[in-house]
Design goal:
The complex is a heterodimer of chains A (497) and B (226).
Chain A lengths: L2 E2 L8 E2 L2 E10 L2 E11 L4 E5 L6 H8 L7 E5 L3 E3 L5 E4 L11 H11 L4 H14 L15 H13 L5 E5 L7 H16 L3 E5 L3 H7 L2 E6 L2 E7 L7 H14 L17 E3 L4 H19 L1 H21 L7 H20 L1 H4 L6 H7 L4 H30 L9 H25 L5 H29 L5 H33 L1
Helix pairs in contact in A: 2-3, 5-6, 6-7, 8-13, 9-10, 9-13, 10-13, 10-14, 10-15, 13-14, 13-16, 14-15, 14-16, 15-16
Chain B lengths: L5 H24 L13 H26 L4 H32 L8 H22 L3 H27 L9 E2 L2 E2 L3 H41 L3
Antiparallel strand pairs in B: 1-2
Helix pairs in contact in B: 1-6, 2-3, 2-5, 2-6, 3-4, 3-6, 4-5
The chains are: A alpha/beta (497), B mainly alpha (226).
Amino acid sequence: MSTVRLETGGEPRPLALQVAGARVRLGKTLALAGVDLEVAPGEVVALFGPNGAGKSTLLRVAAGVLRPQAGGVRWPAAGGDPRAAIGYVGHRTFFSDALSARENLVFFGRLYGMARQAAAARAEALLREEGLILFADDPAGGFSRGMQQRLAICRALMHEPDLLLLDEPWSGLDAEAGDRLSARVLARRAAGGAALVSSHDFEAALAVADRYVLLAGGRVREVGAASPFRGRGQAFEERYRDMVRARRPVAAMVRPNVVTAAARTGGGPSWGATCLAVAGRDLLLELRGRENLAAMGVFGLLVATMFGFAFDPLGQDLRPVFTGVLLIALLFAGLLGMGRSFARELGNDALAGMAAAPCAPSAIFYGKCLANAAFLAVAEAVLVPIFFMLLLVHFPAHPGAFLLALGLGSIGLVAVASLTGAIAAHTRAGEVLQPLLALPLLSPLLVASVRLAGGAVAGSGLAAGAATPWAGLLIAFDLVYLALPAFLFDFVLEVSG
Amino acid sequence: MTLLRWSERVPGAVVYGALLVGLFFAFVYAPPEAYMGQVYRIMYFHISAAWTCLVAYTVVFVASLAYLLGKGDHWDLLARCAGEIGLFFTSITLISGSIWGRAVWLVWWTWEPLLTATLILWLLYAGYLLIRSAAQGDPARMRLSAVWAVLSYVDVPIIVLSVSMMQGLHPHTIEGFNINMDPRMTLSLFINYAAFLLLALYLLGRRVQLEKTAEAVARLKERFRF
């Protein structure tokens, strides 16, 4: 464990943050070209640099949401899951626009292992301190830029982190809110907390910082004490311009010179609590917007209507093709609704916010699956009877095989649609790409479901011996695609960082 | 014009030589088939391409898994190149199978289980290349396509199982370790398969080299950014 020694000669204390040789390439740009940086407990480091210098990338690496391609990052002072000790404010708020300020804060509190009541009490206190209590129950999407930034700061402080990582936190704040933020940073510092703060507001950042670090071209160019420039923002700005113009050589390792705080152990929420929190939030979002269910229901109804027009159910027996049409309609409706489950999280980078929280990625995935399964079950409860009614097909007298096919098929569909939705959400034209990805993957599921359910609807019924292999195939498919994301979703979530 | 070095020319010459030998065995050495006559000879390319694409997809799977397990970016490069080559050989399989079907079954396409499975395989790996082109940024491209490669490969046995549970017309000359063919046909098939494997390996090597050159050029350009 890396340690630094107290200037006063006290016991060695573990570092709050240690970045060593971090190298990150984003596309064709080398965002970080081997950065070394250490932050001690009780220390505030200001991060300066021109646009594109790598400040935000360094903060994302420090928050653990972006893995450097070379080098590493450690949080020696943090026990357990280090993410539990970090409060991160990025460029985006991580909020769901449709949820209220309070609901968003409580959700993130739960992702950081807080009990619902404790999270609600903490959210109430922070909203009150930040002067947002009057708007606590308003949708976060309706907030102004400055209010959203204040809310994001509340989110980062929900779990009282030991290490604050703030990316241009004064941006968009009025003078009063800016002063309040400075006071919060100094208060955390006095309590032994550490902070790494990037900013273009030299005056504000130097007022709270112990040291400054100048980053340019993905490299550390200069390191210095902040105190000589405190209250002399203009003088620092001139020096800063000279430094950027001069393109100084890479500075030596950035080491802290102040240590006052003790390490605090941190932990995250249980797997089940995360899963339920994510599912509950998605259900709440659906209750507010009714986007997924409406899309799934209307699409299914359209297919039934168009099919009825095209094939005149009065004139011919549609039973041989009924199951195929019904299951394909449900499959497309499911993809349409569930594909949005992850896509809508990208608006404010909510997935990155979840990735920064100390919870299991698989729990986030299965939480999403749980909510998607509920949406699909509701859509099926409405659409299946409508299909039987509109296409004039009798519901099977012995519906066991039909319901088994529907149930097992739905489980596999939820797993595949959720995972392909997560993959497609990170691509251009993801809405178009998702069905292209999911349909070939789902082809065995469709074949088996249609075979298993088709016999029951057609009235012939599959003999137990013939039905068992199809049911077995469906169970195998479900097990494989429910198990695989436990390993694979971590990598998908990493992309959000 | 830059001439290829000997170390690059020799493998190419060996591969083209092997393909010529394969052609000799397919068209001269192997006897005509009793029922289909001469048209069956397309089998030597059709089956060889099908087996080769499965090898390529296995390479994609193993390399993607290695990349996800943090063994280095070069595994992603290998997976990407093998994916393109796998799709190329799957296309050959589908086209040659379709031509054969027209001659023997009198239709260009039939929903025969093995053909259907191969078409789904083609769609899955076309999805792999689609993700590569649509993902935003290198880390996303690498991780998402590696995740997709693992998902797709795991789906292959399930697809094969599901379609094999349906009835099919496809001739099954090879069942387990039993090959129900004239020994001269068997020898010709394996020689052609070896030639196709060599071709795939050669193309993979050239493709990887091309990508490395492109990356070196990008790195050189990067040097002049700062």
